Every structure is written in structure tokens, then in C-alpha cells.
Amino acid sequence: MNIGLFGGSFDPIHRGHIALAQAAASRFSLRQVLFVPANLPPHKQNQPLSPFIHRYAMIALATQDEKGFLPSLLEAPEFALAPAPADALVRPSRRRAPSPNYSIDTVRRLLQTLRKSDRLFFLIGIDAFRDIAKWRDARALLALCDFVVASRPGFSLRQVAESLPEDLRPAPAVTRPFHKHPAKGDLLLPGVTLHLLEGVNQTVSATAIRTAAAQSKPLGHWLDPRVADYVRKHGLYRSK
Ligand code: ATP
């Protein structure tokens, strides 16, 4: 069975995320797509983030009508998974500071639960992929699953190849001619399988949505109506 793993902060989940997952599911016959909100994304440790539980709930709402799309607790904080001790209300909590969620750990944990015949596809937007070389154990991660990179107009195949960790990158002489080639097709290199996914052209970002929400602007254009309703009801992203 082909399975997609789609990680992010999803603060909030929007139509761009769903469009990417739909395109990947259709091209690679994914029977499941796991949407994995990070409790603490490594690259956003100094940014304010809505509580995990809100981001998880919004994913559950946005994926309700999509067969095989599932919210995942793979990167949930400890308290969301472990039962609270009986004396939790009287004993002050000594919770440890959360550690960032690294994709290599998440993928390894997920692979332990899959069958040998399952094939894992890691879904990612091209803007996030540009930083892949800085990710923890990037080489090991790239070797563990196929990568599906949603391309955007204006990105070239050369930029994609040059985003790889240095020792996996093709030689400059090989990539130079590709600077005008749009990022599409498959890139099969030793230790890396990259599939470039075209046609996901939703120019929406969670940042723009949070800004619009803070200005009480309508959000329906970018969000599933159930998510827009959730944002409103819980007063998420309101300026303080
Ligand atoms: P923010 O604006 O807060 O940084 P975001 O909209 O980029 O958020 P994330 O949750 O950080 O959303 O992204 C999760 C994944 O979704 C990343 O791989 C990112 O590249 C991808 N992604 C985000 N927006 C889009 C979009 N409009 N089209 C395709 N992929 C997207």
C-alpha cells in the first residue's frame, strides 16, 4: 500500500495543503495521507504557534470528506498521548520542555508500524524542500522514503537538485543546463528518489491567513468553511 506523510505546522491547514495532498494521492495512488502537525517545528521554535490541539482539530475538520486523509498524532506532545496521573490536579506539573519534532524520528517511528510491502511518500512543498540540507539527518531521511515535492511556477529543476545535501547533489556540470527547465518529472539519484509534482498552484499561506484573521477579514476563500468557523469560534489569530 502506498502511504503519504505530510508534515507541517498547519496553523491553520488551508486549501494549498489539501490541493497538494490531493494531487499526490492521485498521482501515486496513495491509500492514506497522514497529516502530521508538529508540536514544535524545529525551524519555528521562536515563533508563536497555536496550541497543538487546535491545529489537530482543524486538520480533522478539513480532511473529513477526503477518503484516506487522516490527522495524525505522530508528533503530538506527551500530554496528548499519555494518560494523566491520578494526582495530576493536586501535584504541580513537572513537564519537561518539549523537544522539537525532527522528521527523521517521525519517519522511523512510522516505518516501524508499516508492512514491508508498504511504500512511504514524504510530501513537501518546494519552498520547504529548499532547506532540506539543513534538516537533521537529511541524507538518512532521503534514503528512507520517496519524496514528493510540490513545485511552483518559477522554480527550476536545477534549484531542486541544488537543494540536496552536498554529497548527494549532482555535479554542477550536470545541473547547470537545467536552470531553465521547470521543476517537473522525477529525479533518481543514488540515495534519493524525488518526484516533482506540478499543478499545485494555490498561492495561499498560513501566514497570510493569520494576518487576515487578525484584521477580521473573511477567510472562506482559503479555508474549508468548517475550519473558518473553528477559527472564528475559538478566536484564533486575533490580535491581542
Ligand atoms: P506558514 O505561512 O505559517 O509558514 P505554510 O502555509 O507554509 O505556513 P506549513 O504548515 O508551514 O504551511 O507547511 C506545510 C507544508 O505545506 C510545507 O511542505 C509547505 O511547503 C507546504 N505548503 C504550504 N503552503 C502551500 C501551498 N500554497 N501550496 C503547496 N504547498 C504548500
What does this structure look like?
With 240 residues, this protein is an alpha/beta fold. The protein has a single domain, classed as Rossmann fold (3-Layer(aba) Sandwich). 33% of the residues lie in helices and 17% in strands. It has helices at residues 15-28, 52-62, 78-81, 103-113, 126-129, 138-144, 157-162, 172-175, 206-214, 225-234, and strands at residues 2-8, 30-37, 69-71, 119-125, 146-150, 185-189, 192-197. A seven-stranded mixed beta sheet has the order 3-2-1-4-5-7-6, sandwiched between helices. Helix 1 links the parallel strand 1 (2-8) and strand 2 (30-37). The N and C termini lie far apart (46 Å). Bound molecules: adenosine-5'-triphosphate.
Write out key terms for the chains shown:
binds adenosine-5'-triphosphate, 7-stranded mixed beta sheet, globular, alpha/beta, 33% helix, 240 residues, Rossmann fold
Quote the distance from N terminus to C terminus. 46 Å
Bound molecules: adenosine-5'-triphosphate
CATH class: Alpha Beta
CATH architecture: 3-Layer(aba) Sandwich
Count every helix, treating DSSP H or I runs of 4 or more residues as helices: 10
User: Average pLDDT, to the nearest integer?
Assistant: 89
- Oligomeric category: single chain
DSSP strand (E) fraction? 15-25%
**What share of residues is helical?**
25-40%
What structural category characterises the helix and strand content?
alpha/beta
Q: Order of strands side by side in the largest beta sheet?
A: 3-2-1-4-5-7-6
Shape: globular
